[in-house]
Amino acid sequence: MIVGHGLAGAILAQTFAKHGINAHVVEANLPHHASPIAAGLVNPLIGPKLNPPFDFEKCLQEIHRLNDFFSRKFGESFYENLSLHRIFRNQEQANIWKSNPSKISHFYEKVEIVDSKETTMTAPFGIGITKCLRLRIQSFLEFSKHSLIESDHWIQGFHNYDTQGYDFIIFCEGFRSAQNPWFSYLPFAPVRGEILEIQKKLLFAASNGTWAIPQSSTSFLAGSTWDHSGLEKGPTSEGKKKILNDLDFLNLNSVEVLSHLSGVRNGTLDRNPIIGPHPENQKIFIFNGFGSRGATTIPLYAMKLVEFILGKSPLPEHLNPNRFES
Questions:
Q1: At what angle do helices 7-18 and 137-150 cross, to 10 degrees?
Q2: Domains, the chain, with CATH or none
Q3: DSSP string covering 210-263, please?
Q4: pLDDT tens digits for 291-325?
Q5: What is the pLDDT of residues 247-269, one digit of tens each?
Q6: Alpha carbon of 248 to those of 92, 185, 288: distances in Å?
């Protein structure tokens, strides 16, 4: 059984299905989770140093394998290709781009820097263009849910943390792991984020740390904020103002906000997810803590967990729930 059908629980359930195992999934539809509002970006170059995420090549390989499985099962491909315009915030970022180190050069779509005079955006240090992916999370969650309903493996409601009736129970509860009696001791670091949908056509994805990605032919999504306090207070006027201010590189003359949403991403203190069995009960697992990189990392780690449960390979030590013990 999998408890939770956010992005982690849904990808894990479909990864089991890919291995010929039908897992039951229980979902309570509680508010404030991040998956229903997540952008789903798979960004090859992150942070001020423009570094690839850890194990990014392996993540991409598993994304493509899983997407092929989705295409066969659902007749849909949920990961789509995008061009991401990276607006450099300073000369150091432009210099990193110009240096073209081998660790990131194959992710470039355009190695040369786009001059600020060639764009309508404000970019005094220039723009680099990379390949990226976007997971259409809402569509994927709906397809996954309907497939589980059709196969009679969907359970709507709460799970009471009883361990009876299943060979394994895997908790994918996001930030609500803090109330899980089995795993509440773990040092998760949840953060509330806000996003906006804005009425304006955007032809490409862009980011200067704050991202903007096309949502429809007439609107785009923008975000996100980071707030470790007031996790369940929902959208705020402060969050809206910050996002709009940080979009100054788009030179928007006027803005019509179509929607303003908030959700809680569950991260960890060392920025690695927490995956594995409970130290005192080997039939109870946790699969959690992916932070803002779930669309990138969850397919790879779901594969690793399934293969561990099937006895094919061990889990990496940096994922072990016991790693925080002193």
A1: 50
A2: 2-40+136-187+270-324 (3.50.50.60), 191-267 (3.30.9.10)
A3: SEEEEEETTEEEEE---BSS-TTS---HHHHHHHHHHTGGG--SS--EEEEEEE
A4: 999 999 999 999 999 999 999 999 999 999 999 88
A5: 999 998 889 999 999 999 999 99
A6: 20, 41, 34
